Amino acid sequence: MFYLRDQCVDECPDGYFGQRQSNLYFACKACHYTCAACTGAHNSSCTECYVGSQLHNGLCVKAGGCQMMVTKLIDGQIE
Fold it and tell me: Which residues contact 51 (CB under 8 A, 6 or more apart)?
């Protein structure tokens, strides 16, 4: 069970991840604002992205944006 906004839920919804708050309970915490779903609070913990972004090594980057180009260059993927 997880605690989310004054209620108990079976699992955290998209946009949240479960985190132990104490030995007594787990809470649903918000993902980084760039992530639609995640495993942690950091921008590199994304597992799903919003429409218009692409997931790359845990980061959501704008599709076709400069960040994606730089990442591809670093990874040696530019064709």
Answer: none
